[in-house]
Amino acid sequence: MPPVFRFAPSPNGLLHLGHAFSALLNFDLARAAGGQMLLRIEDIDATRCRPAFETAIRGDLGWLGVCWDGEVRRQSEHFELYRQAVTRLSEMGLLYPAFESRSEILRLVVERERSGPWPRDPDGAPLYPGDAKALSAAERARLIGSGAPYALRLDMQAAVARAGDLSFIEHGAGPDGETGSVPARPQAWGDVVLARKDTPTSYHLAVVLDDALQGVTEVVRGRDLFFATSVHRLLQQLLGLPRPSYRHHRLIVDAAGRKLSKSNRATSLAELRGSGVTPQAIRRQLGLPPSA
Ligand code: GLU
């Protein structure tokens, strides 16, 4: 079976050189392997995603010479599928509702830190400090009935116990050079949020379901998502989904060595295009071979 690659941007800003690198790398690898290249629009966050950014993404990719096979998949059109997976995980007893607001969570972390450092996830955010897992069924039902907002969190301990030891295949490298068969450590993330009262999925759940549904065999993306792969591997195992292999690539940084951000117009592809830079010059700058 020919391999299937994908580029999966979120339309919450303009693409920059880092996205160009990811898109071109996927495209080149797909071409070289006689495989497919898919485009997926990851627009589950309705507060930040805009159709105008999707239009800009398509325009930038076309200009770069990146074309994709088949229909573009838009995550916002598949909420029912994500809901079904949430129901399955719930029925397996692996999810629980947590009712703390973001500011309450921060307050709890400050409280916990009075007696020593509180663990952080690989992105540097504190692990969930609350004890909603211990709420009684009656109390949960009462809070849900009262209309209180909540997040559905994965009971990481139970999930890991059920899934057993896991690993994933890394063809690129993690931040510390991890490559080959890499042990998954989803525990590092604590009880991650997989859905919210009004949002039927999180990034982690949607990405795993979509990769499986679209038959993606090679996930090629930035090294900033290397550690998230452990959560993805766990969800694949729990939901009985096939596992793709991974290639996490270096991140493109600015002159000061900082990761590029969507909010900085200066490094956007639109700005570079506007100033007369050519797609071939972008390839050269990114250290990629010229296109055929
Ligand atoms: N949508 C994610 C982003 O724009 C990428 C997800 C992925 O490649 O797994 O950062």
Automatic annotation (TrEMBL):
<feature type="domain" description="Glutamyl/glutaminyl-tRNA synthetase class Ib catalytic">
    <location>
        <begin position="6"/>
        <end position="287"/>
    </location>
</feature>
<keyword id="KW-0862">Zinc</keyword>
<keyword id="KW-0067">ATP-binding</keyword>
<dbReference type="GO" id="GO:0004818">
    <property type="term" value="F:glutamate-tRNA ligase activity"/>
</dbReference>
<dbReference type="InterPro" id="IPR049940">
    <property type="entry name" value="GluQ/Sye"/>
</dbReference>
<dbReference type="GO" id="GO:0005829">
    <property type="term" value="C:cytosol"/>
</dbReference>
<keyword id="KW-0547">Nucleotide-binding</keyword>
<keyword id="KW-0479">Metal-binding</keyword>
<dbReference type="InterPro" id="IPR014729">
    <property type="entry name" value="Rossmann-like_a/b/a_fold"/>
</dbReference>
<protein>
    <submittedName>
        <fullName>Glutamyl-Q tRNA(Asp) synthetase</fullName>
        <ecNumber>6.1.1.-</ecNumber>
    </submittedName>
</protein>
<keyword id="KW-0648">Protein biosynthesis</keyword>
<dbReference type="GO" id="GO:0005524">
    <property type="term" value="F:ATP binding"/>
</dbReference>
<dbReference type="GO" id="GO:0006424">
    <property type="term" value="P:glutamyl-tRNA aminoacylation"/>
</dbReference>
<keyword id="KW-0030">Aminoacyl-tRNA synthetase</keyword>
<dbReference type="InterPro" id="IPR001412">
    <property type="entry name" value="aa-tRNA-synth_I_CS"/>
</dbReference>
<keyword id="KW-0436">Ligase</keyword>
<comment type="similarity">
    <text>Belongs to the class-I aminoacyl-tRNA synthetase family.</text>
</comment>
<dbReference type="InterPro" id="IPR000924">
    <property type="entry name" value="Glu/Gln-tRNA-synth"/>
</dbReference>
<dbReference type="Pfam" id="PF00749">
    <property type="entry name" value="tRNA-synt_1c"/>
</dbReference>
<dbReference type="InterPro" id="IPR020058">
    <property type="entry name" value="Glu/Gln-tRNA-synth_Ib_cat-dom"/>
</dbReference>
